[in-house]
Design a protein that fits this description.
CATH topology: Rossmann fold
Protein name: Alpha/beta hydrolase
InterPro entries: AB_hydrolase_fold, BD-FAE-like_dom, GDXG_lipolytic_enzyme
Helix content: 25-40%
Pfam family, one: BD-FAE
Shape: globular
Order of helices and strands: HHEEEHEHEHHEHEHEHH
Keywords: Hydrolase, Signal
Radius of gyration: 17 Å
Strand content: 15-25%
Strand order of the largest sheet: 1-2-4-3-5-6-7-8
CATH superfamily: Alpha/Beta hydrolase fold, catalytic domain
CATH architecture: 3-Layer(aba) Sandwich
Largest sheet: 8 strands, mixed
Number of strands: 8
Number of domains: 1
GO molecular function: hydrolase activity
CATH class: Alpha Beta
Length: 287
C-alpha cells in the first residue's frame, strides 16, 4: 500500500501537478506524530480576504514554539491548503504551525505580499496561545518565494512595525531555497513581482542585515537551477559578518523542488531539510 502511494506521489510530481495533490497523498500515510489541523480558514486580514490554517502536535500541557510557514510559488501561485504537508510536517516536529495565504502577482506587486505576511505574524502573536502556542517563541519559515517573504519579515523591521507587531516578535528563521540577493532581476517572475519598485535595493533581503537580525538557518540544494545557491551562501556570509548566528546547509545534488517535497511524508527522506530546520529552531526557541 505504501509503495502504491509513493508511486502516486512520484507520478503527481513528475506531471508537475500542484502541491495540493502532494498534500492529498500526504494524508494517506501515517506519521507526523499525531499532528492535526486545529483551525482552518481563519480570517486574519478581513479587508484583504486573507485566511490561515493552524496545525498542532499532540499537546504537552505547556505552550509550544511556533512556526509561521510561508509557501513558495514564484509570487504567482500557492495556497495554504496546497501546503498542508508543510503545516503537518512542522507540527509533527513539535511546533504549533501557522500557514497563511498572501496576495499574489499580478493582483499585487512588492511589497504587498510581504505586508500580508507581517499581518499573519501579528495575528499569530495575538492569537496563537488559544491553540497551545507560545507567542514569545515565534519563528518564520518558508520555501522559495515564501523564504524570500520570511527573510524580509525577519530582516526589515518596518514590515512588523507597520503591521502593529512589536520589534523582536520573530525570534528565528528557517529558510529553504530562497532568493535573497538577486538584483538585477534576470527572470520574468522577479521582474513581475519586484521590478516596478522604484528603489530596487529595498527589495533585497541581504541589504537589511544588521546585528539585530534573528538567528537563521539557510538551506539549499547544490543542484538548484531555479534559485541559485549563491543566494543562501551570500546571505549566510553577510549574517556571519554581522555577528548573527547562522547555519548554512547545502544538500549535494538536490534541486529546488527536492527541499519542498521533502517536507511531505511521501518524500521525507529525500533531504534532511525538515529535521535540520526543526532541530535548529528548537535550539533557538527552546523545546
Amino acid at each position: 500500500m505504501r509503495n502504491a502511494i509513493l508511486a502516486l506521489a512520484a507520478l503527481a510530481l513528475a506531471a508537475c501537478s500542484p502541491p495540493a495533490l502532494l498534500s492529498s497523498v500526504n494524508r494517506l500515510l501515517p506519521g507526523d506524530n499525531g499532528a492535526r489541523r486545529v483551525a482552518e480558514g481563519v480570517t486574519f486580514a478581513p479587508d484583504r480576504g486573507l485566511k490561515l490554517d493552524v496545525w498542532a502536535p499532540r499537546q504537552s500541557g505547556r505552550p509550544l514554539p511556533v512556526v509561521v510557514f510561508l509557501y513558495g510559488g514564484g509570487w504567482v501561485a500557492g495556497s495554504r491548503g496546497g501546503y498542508a504537508f508543510a503545516g503537518s510536517g512542522y507540527a509533527g516536529q513539535g511546533f504549533v504551525t501557522v500557514v497563511p495565504d498572501y496576495r499574489l502577482v499580478p493582483s499585487v506587486r512588492f511589497p504587498a505580499f510581504v505586508e500580508d505576511g507581517a499581518l499573519a505574524v501579528k495575528w499569530t502573536r495575538d492569537n496563537i496561545a488559544r491553540y497551545g502556542g507560545d507567542p514569545n517563541r515565534i519563528a518564520v519559515a518558508g520555501h522559495s518565494a515564501g523564504a524570500y517573504n520570511a527573510a524580509m519579515l525577519a530582516l526589515d523591521p518596518r514590515f512588523l512595525r507597520e503591521a502593529g507587531a512589536p520589534a523582536g516578535t520573530i525570534k528565528a528563521a528557517a529558510l529553504l531555497s530562497g532568493p535573497y540577493d538577486f538584483y538585477p532581476f534576470t527572470e520574468q517572475r522577479g521582474r513581475d513581482a519586484l521590478g516596478a519598485w522604484p528603489r530596487p535595493a529595498e527589495t533585497q533581503p541581504i541589504n537589511f542585515v544588521t546585528r539585530a537580525a534573528p538567528p537563521m538557518l539557510l538551506a539549499t540544494g547544490s543542484a538548484d537551477t531555479i534559485v541559485n545557491p549563491r543566494n543562501s551562501r551570500a546571505l549566510a556570509a553577510k549574517l556571519s559578518a554581522a555577528g548573527v548566528p547562522v547555519e548554512l546547509k547545502v544538500y549535494p545534488g538536490k534541486s529546488h523542488v527536492d527541499l519542498a517535497k521533502s517536507l511531505s511524508r511521501p518524500f521525507r527522506g529525500s533531504t534532511p531539510a525538515l529535521a535540520d530546520s526543526a532541530s535548529f529552531l528548537h535550539r533557538v526557541l527552546g523545546e
